[in-house]
Amino acid sequence: MLTQAPKGTKDILPSEVYKWQYIEKIIAELCRNYGYKEIRLPVFEHTELFQRGVGDTTDIVQKEMYTFTDKGGRSITLRPEGTAGVVRSYIEHGMASLPQPIKLYYNITAYRYEKMQKGRYREFHQFGVEAFGSEGPGIDIEIISMLIMLFDRLGVKDIALNINSIGCPECRSKYNEALKEYLKDRLENLCETCKTRFERNPLRIIDCKEEKCKTHTVSAPALIEHLCEGCEQHFEGMKAGLDNLGIAYNVDKNIVRGLDYYTKTVFEFVSKNIGSQGTVCGGGRYDGLIEACGGKATSGIGFAIGIERLLLVMEAQGISIPETQGIDIFVATIGDKAEKYAEKLVYQLRGNGINAEKDLMKRSLKAQMKYADKLGAVYSVVLGDDEVDNNKAVLKNMTNREQREVSLDSIIEELKK
Ligand code: ATP
Ligand code: MG
């Protein structure tokens, strides 16, 4: 136990962290291009926020949360997703009084007590965006196009975009009657959780992952066939906007998504490359959420993409990520005088933005050079008493083995070139 990370967690080791840094850099550029500002929020929130904000008929709240009582007797939960915290922050900081829409993004860890599988962990990473205050389909189109551009910049191919509309409370209440009518004779065959959902939120039953529930809901009536005029127009407007940008999509009437407060647009990006955990990204509009969390009625929309699953897709597609691991120069030394000199030289090199290393293990010269190779040094220089006294040394290019004499004073300028 002591030397094993908890089940469902994964260390990101120095040998693979460059992949994460690469994706984070592309995300930051993308968000800058699209005008989304980063927001950083606490890892834990009051449990109540998720019960409200995610919805207490969801799998997340009913089965997956890491909840505990802190020493002050408060019920605290590790965030299982990012939206609820961002909504809380939007309300707490009065962002409604700023020019709308408010466009935010985050890179977070999230926590869910789930059965471990490939692409399914208990601590995982999400990149998400949330946009508040805009009702029309324009913002729906914007955030979907953002994902298309992300995949494009990463070189990811063959990701299907599936969209649906689950309407507003008005269409929902009419639809719920039709759905309950359909489900009432099948209720006995559903899982225990779905039985409780029947009265409170029957739409959730469509999204249940249990096989027995799935078989009983495949032919259930779909919400998209029960949309009111306003929701129908919104959906048509969104499809027209996607067509306008040349973005391909499928309408999948079975997508309802995990949150209770989703309205109108819901969508997923799915890859066939990574097996059953193929949903890389999920998103949708949640026009009722801000009010449900105690704010003024405000529309909102967002998505979250799982970085582990994104990396799995990239790996499956053989996409290589540029590695930035090597160093610029290794300063090897013979003797104490050179060692002291090298200490200062390396300090100065680093101060000038040059990635410099020296030996710290009392290695022999031969071993130092071997180590320099292992570090992927582009240049090396060997310093002994003579070099220090004459202020001259041989700068060696480790890749093409070219050598030239340089004065030690000018070595920083040489390397900067
Ligand atoms: P799933 O249907 O796979 O359980 P979800 O609907 O619970 O997904 P969301 O809450 O929409 O997922 O989260 C958005 C994205 O976060 C998912 O599409 C996925 O890429 C990622 N994700 C969700 N849960 C996990 C997990 N346990 N481990 C790794 N990634 C996850
Ligand atoms: Mg899930």
Characterise the protein shown here.
With 417 residues, the protein is α+β, with helices and mostly antiparallel strands. Helix content is 39%, strand content 21%. It has 16 helices and 16 strands. The strands form three sheets. It has an eight-stranded mixed sheet with strand order 1-5-6-11-10-9-7-8. Strands 13-12-14-15-16 form a five-stranded mixed sheet, with helices on both faces. Strand 9 (263-271) and strand 10 (279-285) form a beta hairpin. Helix 1 (17-34) packs antiparallel against helix 5 (137-154). The longest helix is centred in the first third of the chain and has 18 residues, at 17-34. The radius of gyration is 28 Å and the shape is elongated. 37% of the residues are buried. The mean pLDDT is 95. The chain binds adenosine-5'-triphosphate (ATP) and magnesium ion (MG). Adenosine-5'-triphosphate (ATP) binds at residues 81, 112, 114, 119-121, 124, 126, 258, 277, 279-282, 304-306, 308-309.
